[in-house]
UniProtKB/TrEMBL annotation:
The keyword Transcription regulation applies. InterPro entries: RNA_pol_sigma-70-like, RNA_pol_sigma-70_dom, RNA_pol_sigma70_ECF_CS, RNA_pol_sigma70_r2, RNA_pol_sigma70_r4, RNA_pol_sigma_r2, RNA_pol_sigma_r3/r4-like, WH-like_DNA-bd_sf. Keywords: DNA-binding, Sigma factor, Transcription, Transcription regulation. Pfam families: Sigma70_r2 (PF04542), Sigma70_r4 (PF04545). This is RNA polymerase sigma factor. Belongs to the sigma-70 factor family. ECF subfamily.
C-alpha cells in the first residue's frame, strides 16, 4: 500500500470507525460482532481505493452502507438461521456413565469378529487372558514363533478393521 493510501485509510479509521462501531452495536446489540463488521468494512475500503479519495461525507456514507450490508448478509446466512447462542454450557455428566466403555467394547468385538479364528484366538488369549507367548503356545498347541506371527498379523488386521469403523489412532 502506498504511503498516501495508508495515511488516508488511517485517517478514515480515526474519523469514522467509532461511529460505524456504535451504529453496528445499535443494529445488532453485539459488541464482538461490531468489531468484526468494522474491521471487514475498513478492509473493503482498503480494497477499493476510490473510497479513500472521496470526500469525508461520502466516504462516511459508504462505510455505513457497507457495514449495514454486512450485518444484513450475516443475518441472512445459514449459520445465523440455524444456530443460536447460549450463555450456559450443556451439562457434563458428573461421573463416567460407562457409555464410552460399552461403545469401545462393541467396536472391538465387531473388529475381532472379522479376524480369522487363528488370529482371534491368539489375540483373545494374549490381551483378554493376559497370557504370555509361551502359555499361548502350550494352550493352543502351536509353536511360539507362530503365536508371535499370528499376534502381529492379527493386530494389523484388527487395526484396519477398527479404522474402517472410524476409529483413529491418538
Amino acid at each position: 500500500m502506498p504511503d498516501e493510501d495508508a495515511r488516508l485509510l488511517r485517517e478514515l479509521h480515526d474519523q469514522h470507525a467509532q461511529a460505524v462501531w456504535r451504529y453496528v452495536v445499535h443494529l445488532t446489540g453485539d459488541r464482538a460482532m461490531a468489531d468484526d463488521v468494522v474491521q471487514e468494512t475498513l478492509l473493503r475500503a482498503w480494497r477499493k481505493p476510490a473510497v479513500l479519495d472521496q470526500s469525508q461525507q461520502s466516504a462516511r456514507a459508504w462505510l455505513f452502507t457497507v457495514a449495514r450490508n454486512i450485518v444484513i448478509d450475516d443475518k441472512r446466512s445459514a449459520h445465523s438461521q440455524h444456530e443460536f447462542g447460549t450463555d450456559t454450557l450443556p451439562e457434563r455428566p458428573s461421573q463416567d456413565d460407562g457409555a464410552d466403555a460399552v461403545l469401545d467394547a462393541w467396536l472391538v468385538s465387531d473388529a475381532l469378529a472379522e479376524l480369522s479364528d487363528e488370529h482371534r484366538a491368539v489375540i483373545v488369549h494374549a490381551y483378554y487372558g493376559g497370557r504370555s507367548i509361551a502359555e499361548i503356545s502350550r494352550e493352543l498347541d502351536i509353536p511360539e514363533g507362530t503365536v508371535k506371527s499370528r499376534l502381529h498379523y492379527g493386530l494389523r488386521a484388527m487395526r484396519l478393521a477398527l479404522q474402517e469403523r472410524g476409529v483413529t489412532e491418538r
